[in-house]
Amino acid sequence: MHRILGALLLMALPISAQQPDLAPFALPTAPSVKITNGVIHATLYTPDPKNGFYRGTRFDWAGVIGHLEYAGHSYYGPWFTKTDPNVFDFIYKENDIVASPCSAAVGPVEEFFTDEKALGFDQAAPGGTFIKIGVGVLRRTDNRDYSSYIQYPIVDPGQRTLHTTADSVTFTQTVNDSSSGYGYLYNKTVRLVPGKPQMLIEHALTNIGKLPIQSNVFDHNFLSLDRLPIGPDLRITLPFKLIPKQPVDTSLGSVDLNTIAYQSQLTGHQTFENVFTGFGTTTADYNIRIENSRAHAGLTITGDRPLHSLELWSIRSVVAVEPFIHIAIQPGQTFTWTYTYTYFTLPQSNQ
Questions:
Q1: CATH class for the region spanning 4-345
Q2: For the chain, which ranges sit under pLDDT 50?
Q3: Which residue in 43, 255, 311, 343 is a FRET match for 168, CA 20 to 30 A apart?
């Protein structure tokens, strides 16, 4: 899993005291736009190399959702309390969760991988360039292996445009790296469906380079519902029998057929994570339901491409169900994919 090295580094740190509900947060100040369909209200951070909320070289800069509210419930927001450029991934420091610039993202952000690396990384000598889709042209600085948690120099962020309506934002980025032979035109639209508690994230990636693009893209889905801690109120279900690749820590959670449940509240440095198989080759299995009985709310996430892999990562402040899809695009061709987020409330007990 992508965070194993980070987890090993964290084990040597002192464990914080048990955490209560997360404190309310003020939305960090950065360039942003607000959209609404009258049912959902959302704030999206816009790409900005100088003042943007997210300027790391891991995640796609487009469509970073800082806040989304439906029926009085808040779905996204910072899972960390501070950032530090000297941190690898994230660390615990007393009661703080301190994230690196590469990991300090929120909401349903996406990361693109080619063989667990960035596009053209292996072909780039130190000093040469490669591409991170959604970020731009980056420079390889040395002979070290690729890491999502290294902040690589951005040589060319490409050309970006932004188009907004009352209920949608479209981000466009054009990147062409003649040195590596890779290039792309990327359109990403975050759209609120009229009159419904539903959000679409629509993508179109066109290969404008000389070389084929082979990549996996995953949605990190950082979820911090009503700022509640991660624990027994939370339940995750999928439409297939989940097969965990690693032994399940039954003191923290359980995997029963198609359901993931938490047995205790995550505290201190506790992490509940795993990689899952069991899904098929159709889009029907890309259907994730997350609900919190204490918040009386939840959401479903569906995709129009088959799952390529599936991971779960959660700490005391956030749960992330991470579905991957596979992308293959020949020069001159376009690949499209869409995620649908449907937000809902649960009936409250009379007891």
A1: mainly beta
A2: 1-21, 23-24, 351
A3: 311
